[in-house]
């Protein structure tokens, strides 16, 4: 290729090359966006599945057992998502990952939301950065791509919204009544932890507001339960029994 | 430009304005009817169980009369333009479906299916391309019904009916489980679905209160 | 523009500017009075039933003093221009009407009619085209009253008065039935009317709590 | 009617009355809005008619004659609009006018825009407030309703946009070349006159910006004509003749 | 909710996403073709009159190939949903119509009518409810053509063709008079129509220059 | 532009840039401290009454350390330029005042006055033209405190402390009555003041729940 | 809130309101004067070169009269509060500076420096902490002048003055080179500076038209 | 969050913050250089053809000095993270490439290829994943050059150089034909590409003016 292009034909020749390069980029971008959308949809379904499994368990079995069943179903489905990420590996190899990070990001965050919800139900803790990165690595522990810090945090931030839903529906779940309080304390901790990181992540700042609202809703649930139990002053297990018997009649 | 071509184009541009006016008139009618429906159904909150059939009986003819409106709208909408105009009447339609579904619950305790809802409002299958009941509108109507049922659970107790909240609780939980099976997008429907949790919470609180009151009348009247 | 026309326009303009200033001064006055009124009435939420008449007595002279303001505004407004200027004072006027209606409820448990509300504020029939109490402003004031009544229902129970919520419930439901008769358009009144539902729900929940615990006689309203 | 309403029935009775009153108001409002829309449409058509008539006259007849023919056609049509206003008379009698001013206003302004355009073509002046008010009065000179000052000014402000269109198309109109300059000076005067009134009318302030843009466009047209004539230094009449002959060939 | 009802609703919700994808693919195709068309037609600005027929000949097969795309889109669009999806392809369609109309002008000096434009692109009358050429899209295309014609007037002179500007002037004035007969709303079309005046102004300036040059070669080359 | 003029202007522009950087650094510091403060105070919602003094004790030294920051800012700000730069730190300052006022409530149940708030943060009277605590910032801080107190009322009950809501209710109503006497113009402060009503309603509902269930002695406050 | 605290806060709030009113009155005055100034200067676009000195002469006394206003504002502003209130008058001040600078260009063809601009408007150095002309306001005024000069270049040609555009071109390019040396941050000033490019392009096109047609001597500026 | 995780996150975060600061410093440097470059190149619009080589000579050393900056940036960027940080410097880089390409056009009349542009700025192939010249940035720079060339076409005529517009016209049309081959998406590049049409139109008009007046030989381009 000559260094200075002085004829129309030589110009068209190099633009021909640019076209291929741009098309290649746009096509990959489209594929990744589509893939990210699939990841989002699958992850949303996992979250729904978890809530659904918890609802199904209503009163039939022990709370812990219900949670674990929900978790194992979720993990099953999450494997599909992880396979999608594994499939992206080539597309985002080398310096390409950061070029396409914004295209992958929505799906990644939704995945982290789902994964961390399952993790919470299993361990009652916040999933760590390394655990998430590990879930996005092959059998040898080599990551498919680096886990961006902001996607990790933004995914976790969305978790609090799901926990709010979990807490609210816990009011109609046997043994779940004590859960509301647990979740309340946990989310309060999340909010405090995130607070220190907000100066560095603008989007997290916006999501913090949603987290605060979710927290208030969870507090209201814990309050409603506390107020009602206080009136009778009976152990929660016994209260549950009474309610269950009445409904069953 | 030749005059014929011009005339033709001008006609196309003018027709829509007129049609919009006509549809608007029908929607105003429709709106009046659904206003009456919700007004009547609002009485349920102070109607003792024994008088519910009577109340339902007053609602039925109004529901029936909606058939004329849906027919008029189907008549007006040009073939194929359902999607172009549907936003104009969807609020009214959702209210009508809500009324039909609520009446069905009051009558039988069961859930009115989408095809049955369409039938109740006289919506014909062959109108497909001009007037139809979309899944979205149907689901919005069901959510409105749940909002009312949580109020009804509270007011039933006030009226001394302690069975209704239990029935409502079972019905709504079932419905909620159904919603949970849908793959909703992040839109208005999703937001309203999310809000259902609060209705369920309220209903559960009533069930809780009722259960404990029944077994353990802790406090006695001390006004 | 030819100078004569410009001159004429400037004259018209100056007159309006001056009038606006004068009305503004009166509205500032009016606003102070209604601020005092709502401040006084806010105390109702911690006033035991026995001391209500006393509270009402402190409000009456302030209400009375509003007559001067309405007279001043009627004096200022040119014939036929009521609707041109009313937006300037309608917030204050609604607050004054709210106060009058709330006082009436506290005194008699009944609803202050529009003509009586106008009379209380010294609004004369012959001002018709310069200063009058429109249906819209009156209805806004009633909605504000319902907002306060739902709070009062809650606070009455705190103060150990279990009858008040029942009275409020009946009164508000009657009022709501009235509102339901109106064909409201998508405007501010409609939005505020929609918000009434939350007040009613709250009141119903208070009545529920009271009934459940048998703190007051079972309600047997069955309109 | 009792002064204090203490039963549900008495309450419903007065609300029945409110319903009638509100319905009455809304119905009138709807009628006036529809009527105003008709006025707007008719007035827009008048403006189009004027531009069209001016275009039709292209080169066939004398500029002044073309203008006057456009004006007389416009006046004919404007009578229809005035009849619509006459028909509103009852609806806006007494204190009702100001209640519904906002509903009538869009049509009124468009009418003033059309009327003032015809007036300009006829007299080369800005129509006065009193002339507009007179056009909205019956044979005895009794106004159908008071003319709001802001509608008058806002209507005139829109006139400058139409004059801009007039000036731009004048470039292709025989004898019309000198028109561009005339219009330029006139619009410059309008802008200056309006400027003094902007502190009192917020909407006029916004429209002043549009007027300034229109003025710049007119200045560009006057400039384009001046530049081309300067190059040849022939009397404009002669230039016109030359162009006409070439095109006719 | 019974599973069948649920399944049914879920299907309805899912179908649209898939359809949108398919239409998008066709639109990408369509877009490539119109890009080629405008690329070829852009050469007109440096093509001497004698070689215009040749250029037109290279354009025709590409125009022809658009028929496949319109057929594919008509095939995809569900009956009655024209209005729901048309925004996806209207940019491409306008470009195709522009090309057809421009070619017609270059070939015959005349205006391509709306039905002829539809025919050229293979749009069938019986697709009415799935794919049709709206008046709006047709008019947008004509305006694009005028934009190009004003450029062509300038470039023709550069290439030594002094007749073309006169032809363009007559053609565009006629077209403009046609537009003036339409009752346009205050929308995008109206704004673009307004901008036509600048094209006419430019063309007139060229006509002016050409006329005077022809008769009075005032300046001689003095580089 | 002549070089001298240019030089002069560039100097003016550069000086500001530099100062802004320095202030920004201090504000970042300030922000860290107030973030720590609100983080610590946030623990109040899960701290049983007995451990409150301990929590307060951890907050005090951080509050104390804010004095250095205010001193640094006062040092940086050129005489007379308080109003130019204050927007940069007002968020942090309000948070610091909020913390001080909240701590005061938790310690004594009383309201921290404006001069005392300034003193707590080490703001000196003689800094008047460089760094001062404006009434606006003080009032914003109080409103933030009320927001937190309504949450605290709720969470206290959850922790089994039924006295706290009653104390909060009295304190907040008193504060609200004070606000009602201020001449707030229609600005941000006014809007936040209006939002206080929701906090009061929430607190009233907590007190209601507690009273209804006789979980605490009947409230007989009649301010 | 204790009454003393309240009283104190209310005083602070009231004082500001009053001062704001007074400043507003002066700003209204100022605005009138600058409106007159720009009105007069706007005539330049139709003033033949020979009458420019006359036009300048009518502007001077109005400019002179601005000194009273700046003095009044400096008098009103409390020491140290310049930065608090300056936004109220900066639009008027910029317009006054623009007028002064434009007059200077018309008179001498030169650029008014910042200190000279301040002097023209009677702004004294000793007002430093109450009223001063900031670099930002001065630069905004210069940009406004360039906007007007590009219009003047166009209109001069229309009036047959072919020298003016050349003078303007040289002046503006010089000014633009000055701006290019400033460290403008990304704010309103930067955006307006960027827009200067359009004015320069416009002026260049006028100079082009004039040169092409040999209406003025060939420009041989090579700064 | 468990403390270990928090610790780890904070480490990652601190590293990024520090790196961002360092890059920012380099970009500030880079920006100063490109500002100087565009400042110098802006003089081309008033430089007669004979003095162009001289102007080019003053630009070259500044261009040369950019190599240090690109090296520093390549050094800073961690492996594989080019796309993560490039937004920080792409404005400066595009300006530098624009300058290099413009200089090349002025020197040889030809187009600087991407590899040569990279080489000119000292960008090494082995930096590939840390600092490279992307096609996108290169294309943006070319568009900026076309913007300047349309201005240059106008100003050349003013300076009496009638050959330059013809050269520019050919060069720009060739370049435009290249751009037309790209499938641009709806992004910034597409918008800027669309704006090229205005530049081309302007250039065509200059060529027209020159041709009409026979100021330069008739153009016989017929690609
Ligand atoms: Mn979520
Ligand atoms: Mn108009």
From TrEMBL, chains B, C, E, F, G, H:
Subcellular localization, as worded in the UniProt entry: Cytoplasm; Nucleus
GO molecular function: RNA binding; sequence-specific DNA binding; single-stranded DNA binding
Gene Ontology biological-process entries: RNA metabolic process
GO cellular component: cytoplasm; nucleus
Entry superkingdom: Eukaryota
Family: Belongs to the translin family.
Keyword RNA-binding tagged: yes
Statement: the UniProt record of this protein carries the keyword RNA-binding: yes
Entry keywords, A to Z: Cytoplasm, DNA-binding, Nucleus, RNA-binding
UniProt protein name: Translin
Recorded coiled-coil stretches: none
SUPFAM superfamilies registered for this protein in UniProt: Translin
């Amino acid at each position: 290729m000559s260094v200075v292009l002085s004829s129309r034909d030589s110009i068209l020749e190099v633009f021909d090359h640019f076209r291929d390069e741009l098309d290649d980029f746009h096509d990959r971008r489209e594929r990744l966006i589509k893939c990210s959308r699939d990841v989002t949809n699958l992850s949303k379904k996992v979250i729904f599945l978890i809530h659904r499994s918890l609802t199904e368990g209503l009163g039939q079995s022990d709370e812990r057992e219900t949670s674990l069943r929900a978790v194992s179903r979720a993990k099953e489905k999450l494997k599909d998502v992880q396979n999608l990420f594994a499939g992206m590996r080539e597309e985002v190899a080398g310096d390409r990952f950061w070029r396409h990070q914004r295209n992958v990001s929505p799906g990644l965050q939704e995945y982290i939301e789902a994964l961390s919800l399952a993790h919470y139900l299993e361990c009652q803790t916040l999933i760590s950065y390394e655990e998430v990165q590990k879930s996005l690595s092959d059998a040898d522990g080599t990551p498919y791509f680096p886990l961006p810090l902001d996607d990790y945090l933004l995914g976790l931030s969305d978790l609090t919204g799901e926990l709010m839903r979990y807490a609210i529906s816990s009011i109609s779940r046997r043994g779940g009544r004590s859960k509301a309080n647990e979740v309340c304390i946990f989310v309060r901790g999340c909010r405090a932890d995130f607070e220190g990181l907000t100066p560095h992540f603008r989007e997290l700042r916006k999501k913090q507001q949603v987290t605060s609202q979710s927290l208030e809703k969870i507090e209201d649930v814990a309050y409603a339960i506390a107020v009602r139990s206080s009136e009778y002053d009976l152990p929660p297990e016994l209260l549950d029994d009474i309610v269950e018997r009445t409904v069953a009649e | 430009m030749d005059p014929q071509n011009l005339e033709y184009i001008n006609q196309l541009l003018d027709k829509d304005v007129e049609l919009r006016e006509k549809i608007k008139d029908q929607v105003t009618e429709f709106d009046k009817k659904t206003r009456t429906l919700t007004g009547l159904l609002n009485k349920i909150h102070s109607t003792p169980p024994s008088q519910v059939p009577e109340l339902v009986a007053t609602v039925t003819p109004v529901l029936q009369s909606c058939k004329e409106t849906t027919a008029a709208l189907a008549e007006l909408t040009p073939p194929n333009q359902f999607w172009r105009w549907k936003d104009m009447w969807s609020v009214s339609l959702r209210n009508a479906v809500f009324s039909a579904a609520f009446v069905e619950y009051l009558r039988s305790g069961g859930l009115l299916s989408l095809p049955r809802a369409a039938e109740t409002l006289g919506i014909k299958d062959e109108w497909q391309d001009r007037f139809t009941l979309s899944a979205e509108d149907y689901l919005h109507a069901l959510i409105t019904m749940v909002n009312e049922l949580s109020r009804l659970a509270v007011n039933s107790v006030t009226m001394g009916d302690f069975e209704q909240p239990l029935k409502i609780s079972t019905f709504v939980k079932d419905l909620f489980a159904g919603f949970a099976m849908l793959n909703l997008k992040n839109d208005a429907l999703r937001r309203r679905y999310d809000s259902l949790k609060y209705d369920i919470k309220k209903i559960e609180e009533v069930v809780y209160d009722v259960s404990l009151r029944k077994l353990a009348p802790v406090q006695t009247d001390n006004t």
